[in-house]
Design a protein that fits this description.
CATH class of the largest domain: Alpha Beta
CATH topology of the largest domain: Aldehyde Oxidoreductase, domain 4
Radius of gyration: 29 Å
Number of domains: 3
Distance between the termini: 56 Å
Strand order of the largest sheet: 1-4-6-2-14-11-12-13
Helix content: 25-40%
Length: 798
């Protein structure tokens, strides 16, 4: 390792007039700055921020024989060139497992590959320079000798005896396996009037956030403290992980997260290059910045949805669904992602297949295997799009086979709205859902009978349009049953601290974070309502582990349901505290007072008595005027975690209306509808746009997005020219409506809404395309993305 850095000018002027050198209390960790005079520096000019670029493996699997860094070390502006072995002395490796996922295993992962690179894009060397451009130029000078190894790229053969084992110490390429067998599955299939059996394939894709991953790590040797500015969804989780693997106490690490330009689950994981960045800052004792460029994002941001599901459904002639069975195979990368693991998506698929339906017989197997591709982990609506598409495609294929309308078969099988609490075949406990009310609302909203009549008329003219549906259940407001029980230090509770400032405004510190979904607006609404102040008098502070209550952050549609409830409870407590102070000032019973529009009023008459600014002035600056023994407390902290139910499940139904050109195979999205029940709707506009945004991402997976790899593990379309994302021109009008079934676990009654759109959209599109092609005798399409080639293949034209 070679470290060079400019000596700050202040260190060369030890004898200048009025020098502060030598006056400070000695700090041994500053000894390297003393220039050999035995003096200690208090007015040191801090080292300038440096930028890191990474040398990444061009191979999917290769042994690292040698890394030659001499030329890079001598390049202009270089601060350091660091290899994996050198960095491993600063930071410990991690293993992505959870104890409640029985049998899950993974190998230790390092920030920089040490002996082998296990996917194309894995970092093998870090180059730190004064600018990103200089670091990238020097990275080109690093020479790595690789011995290319066989790459495991096909999940279907990953467990075969002849397939190389990526991590020999693990014994095989199986990461995780789960089996479930409930009811009398074999009997149900044997006695069925119709059975539909098919294989689904879902293309791996990624989040393509507007803002790429970004981090600045700043190790302060004087304070022995690390400050990390990071685009993350879970600041407290990352504080814990940085501290753990750098052998620090948590209080030595501060994570600051300001507004983040989109995350969708992409930024809630541990990334090797980000761990390398914080380790480099500690090693070099200076701020280090890393921002992934778009090409790096495609090969390092987690991927998701790479599943092959063999599935079948049994039905009676009257439409009663009697059994579901699935065999899910998913290939992740060479490591299970830390700390949430890469087993959760497949586990969710097992949990959610058939979930909306009153079907007691269910058999499932899920296997998660290692392969030499980029890592896979949780991405928006984890597992839901797979489970919903499989379930809903099976339901509509079964309806077609017995000649029943797709809405009618759902009416006969969805869990009745008056049957709650209920438990699914997979063991999910539902507090209160509204499948039938949602279906009825959708039927009327889209004018289903009118669309069917239009479809029939257009078919006579050779225009093929299809209507597809997808009922869904969504996991929100997760308790510790998601991660905490498995040993991960990922908080399921959240907190809010509120204080009245000296001018009568309310400051809210919350543990949830702002990723562009409107967290600050929702928290401000909740706080303003709870306290009784105008919303413009509320300031919301998020994303700072030094200043916000310990919390889980933003993921799994938890911000409003959990963080919002904490803010509501804190608001009620602060309101009571303010009224106690006002009552003391006014010599009135606090119960006889109220706060309305930022003013304390008589509760009965509404007569204004005193403004909050005056309450604050007296409490903070003239407490001597308050009665003896009375202490004003104008700050309140409250926490909330779901307790009655491990999750607050939401539900809904989507419909898609498409037109398919049988000559070209192109699918045109015409209209899309979603009726969703997320409990209490706090901000209708934000909720509707969350649902619309989720639908757009679901439509992307259904028709456009696909990370395409070749047999050698090379990503073939890792750029914005070749990787298709949904654009405004392709998107249909999206209509959103709601049924409201509040959760009784909280006073707000809010559930999550962030992933419902993504959960149902792919299934609705698959069904709509198959409905359009049915008169043409096409083979049912059971893969995504549904490309023109896929359509033409279904029609037997390619």
């Amino acid at each position: 390792m070679n470290i060079t850095e400019d000596v700050p000018p202040a260190l060369t002027a030890l004898d200048r007039p009025n020098s502060y050198i030598g006056r400070s209390v000695p700090r041994p960790n500053l000894a390297r700055l003393t220039q050999g005079r035995g003096q200690f520096v208090s007015d040191v000019v801090l080292p300038r921020m440096a930028h890191v670029a990474f040398v990444r493996s061009p191979h999917a699997h290769a042994r690292i024989k040698a890394i030659r860094t001499e030329a890079a070390k001598n390049a202009p502006g270089i601060v350091a060139v660091v290899t994996g072995r050198e960095l491993a002395e600063i930071i410990t490796p991690w293993v992505g497992v959870l104890t409640h996922l029985k049998g899950i295993k993974s190998a230790p992962q390092y920030p920089l590959a040490v002996e082998r690179a296990c996917w194309q894009g894995e970092a093998v060397c870090a180059v730190v320079a004064r600018t990103r451009a200089l670091a990238e130029d020097a990275a080109e000078l690093v020479e790595v000798d690789y011995e290319e190894l066989p790459a495991v790229t096909d999940p279907e053969t990953a467990l075969d005896p002849g397939t190389p084992v990526i991590h020999p110490e693990l014994g095989d390429n199986l990461t995780f396996e789960r089996k479930l067998d409930v009811g009398e599955v074999d009997k149900a299939f044997a006695e069925a009037d119709a059975v539909v059996e098919t294989t689904f394939r879902f293309g791996r894709h990624t989040g393509v956030c507007l803002e790429p991953r970004a981090i600045v790590a700043d190790w302060n040797p004087g304070e022995q403290r690390l400050t990390v500015y990071q685009a993350t969804q879970a600041p407290h989780m990352m504080q814990n992980l940085f501290a753990k693997h750098l052998s620090l106490a948590e209080h030595q690490v501060r994570v600051v997260t300001k507004d983040v330009g989109g995350s969708f689950g992409i930024k809630v994981h541990t990334y090797a290059d980000e761990m390398a960045t914080v380790a480099l800052s500690k090693l070099l004792r200076r701020p280090i910045k890393f921002v992934a460029d778009r090409l790096e994002s495609f090969v390092t941001d987690i991927h998701a949805r790479d599943h092959r599901v063999h599935a079948k459904i049994a039905v009676k002639g009257d439409g009663t669904i009697t059994a579901f069975a699935i065999d899910d195979l998913t290939g992740i990368g060479p490591y299970s992602v830390y700390p949430r693991t890469s087993g959760i998506e497949a586990n969710q698929v097992v949990n959610l297949v058939g979930a909306p339906y009153a079907c007691p017989n269910y058999r499932a197997q899920a296997r998660v295997v290692f392969q030499n591709k980029n890592v896979m982990c949780q991405y928006r609506a984890v597992g839901h799009p797979i489970a919903v598409a499989v379930t809903e495609a099976l339901v509509e294929l079964a309806a077609a086979k017995i000649g029943m309308d797709p809405l009618e078969i759902r009416r006969r099988n969805l869990i009745p709205d008056d049957a709650y609490p209920a438990t699914s075949a997979a063991g999910l406990k539902f507090e209160l859902l509204s499948h039938h009310a949602s279906l009825a609302h959708l039927d009327a909203m889209m004018d289903y009978s009118g669309l069917r009549a239009e479809q029939k008329r257009l078919r006579e003219r050779g225009i093929y349009r299809g209507i597809g549906f997808a009922s869904f259940v969504e996991v929100t407001n997760p308790s510790a049953a998601f991660y905490g029980v498995g040993g991960a230090k990922i908080s399921s509770q959240d907190g809010a601290t509120l204080r009245l400032d000296a001018q009568g405004a309310v400051i809210c510190h919350t543990g949830v974070t702002e990723q562009g979904q409107g967290t600050e607006a929702v928290m401000a609404q909740v706080v303003a309502t709870a306290v009784g102040v105008p919303i413009e008098r509320v300031k919301v502070v998020t994303g700072d582990t030094d200043n916000t209550p310990y919390g889980g952050g933003t993921w799994a549609s938890r911000a409003a349901g959990i963080g919002g409830e904490a803010a509501w409870q804190a608001g009620k407590a602060l309101r009571a505290n303010i009224l106690a102070v006002a009552g003391s000032i006014l010599q009135a019973a606090p119960k006889a007072l109220d706060i309305r529009n930022g003013v304390v009023v008589d509760a009965d008459s509404g007569r204004e008595r005193i403004g909050l600014d005056e309450v604050a002035r007296i409490a903070y600056f003239r407490p001597d005027t308050l009665p003896p023994g009375f202490q004003a407390e104008l700050m309140a902290t409250r926490h909330y975690v779901p307790r009655t139910w491990p999750f607050a499940f939401t539900n809904g139904i989507q419909a898609s209306y498409v037109e398919v050109d049988p000559e070209t195979g192109f699918v045109k999205l015409l209209r899309h509808w979603c009726v969703e029940d997320c409990g209490t709707v706090i901000n209708p506009q934000l909720v509707d746009e969350q649902v619309r945004g989720g639908i757009v991402q679901g439509l992307g997976g259904a028709l456009f997005e696909h990370c395409v790899y070749d047999s050698r593990g090379q990503l073939l379309n890792g750029n914005m020219a070749d990787y298709l994302v949904p654009m405004a021109a392709e998107m249909p009008d999206i209509e959103v409506a709601h049924v409201v079934s509040p959760t009784a676990d909280s006073e707000l009654g809010a559930k999550g809404a962030g992933e419902a759109g993504t959960a149902g959209a792919p299934g609705a599109v698959i069904n709509a395309v198959n409905d359009a092609l049915r008169p043409l005798g096409a083979t049912p399409i059971t893969e995504t993305p549904i490309t023109p080639e896929c359509v033409l293949r279904a029609l037997g034209k390619v």
